[in-house]
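Provenance and format

Records in this collection were gathered into a single text stream. Each protein contributes a sequence line and a C-alpha cell line. The two records reproduced below are adjacent in the stream.
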Amino acid sequence: MDTSSSVLVPPDLDIARLTAEASRRAEAMGITEPGEARTDLAAIRQLAGKVRRAGIATSAADIINNVETPSNRELATLLQMVITALDASPAPTYEWKGLARVFPAEELAPLLNISLSSLKRYQSGERETPDTTAARLHFLALVVGDLAGSYNDTGIRRWFERKRTQLGGRSPAQLLKHDWDPDGEGPGRVRALARSLVTLSAT
C-alpha cells in the first residue's frame, strides 16, 4: 500500500498556494466541485486526474499520478504547469456549469454579450459554443477563480458591478461590454485587478 498518498505535503515551495490556485481555477471552470481543495498528495493527485479528464495538463497529471513520491520541487513545478494549462485552455463543456454556480443566466448573458436564449442553448449543449463566446466564458471563469480566494459568490457578482478607481471609475462589467476581446486592454485591466487580490492573499 502506498502510504505516501495520505501524507500532508509540507508547505514549502508554495505548494499550498499553488494547490489552492489550481483548485480555484478548476472549480471556477466547472472541472471540480466546490469544497474539494486540500493539500495532501492524494487530493493533489485527484485534482490532477480531474483536470486530465477534461483534456488539460495531461502530461503533468500523468507525472503527478505515476511518480510514487514526487519531491516538493517537482510537485511545485507540476502544479505550475497545471495552472498554466488551465489558463490557456477554454473548456466550455465544463465552464458553463462552473459559472452557473455563481451567475444566474440573466446576469451571465450580458457579460458574454449574447442573448439569454443563445446562452441556454449553449449551456444545454443544444448548440456548440462559438469560439468567441468560449473565449469570453473562459476569461470570466479565470476571473472568478481569482476572486474566489477573497469573495463568496454574492461578493463575486457584486465585484463585477462596483466602480473601481483602478479602472478609471468604471466597473469591471462596464469594461466587458459589446464585442469585447479577452485579450483587449479593458479586459486585461479587469483580470489584473482580480489577480492583484490573489497576490495580496498570498502575502
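Adjacent record:
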Amino acid sequence: MKSYAWIPAFLLLILTYFLSSIPGLKVLPVLKQVNAILVSYDLSITRLAVKIASYLPVQLDPAKTFTSDFYAYARANPVIIEFILRKSAHVILFFLITLSFFIMLHQLFKRPGLAVAGAFLAGTILSFLDEYHQSFTANRSGNLVDVAIDMVGVCIAIGLVIFALVITRRWRV
C-alpha cells in the first residue's frame, strides 16, 4: 500500500498540468462531447437527471421547479454556467489533490499532524504554480482569484481530514 500512495497524487498533477496547458479551455464543449458519447450508448445526462427527478418525493416539488427554472436559465445564459462549472472544477480538483497528498504524506510520516500540514502546504503551492503555468498558456490567465477558489478546495479537504481524525480519535501531532 505504501509504495502506491503517490500514484493518485501524481496522476492528479498530470491531469492538472494537462488541463492548464489547453489554450482557452471551455467546459461546456467537453460536456457536450461526453453527452454525445453517452447518447451513443443510449444514455444521456439530461435523461439521467429526469429519471432521478422522477423518483424524488412530492415534498421536493419546489426543488423540481427550481431545477427546471435553472435549466431554462442555463440554456439562455451559457456563459454563467461555464463560469460556475470552471470554478467548481477548481474546487473539486484541488480538494482531490490535497486529499491525495494527505494520504501519501500520512503513509510516509505516520504522523497525522505533519501529513495535514504538508498536504495544506502542497495544495497551496500547487495552486500558485498552476495559475503561474496558466499565465504562459494562450487564451488563459493566471490570477489570484483562482488561487483563492483553489484554496476553498484545499481547505475543505483539510477540514474533512481533521474532522475524520478527531472523530476517530487518531489526531496526534
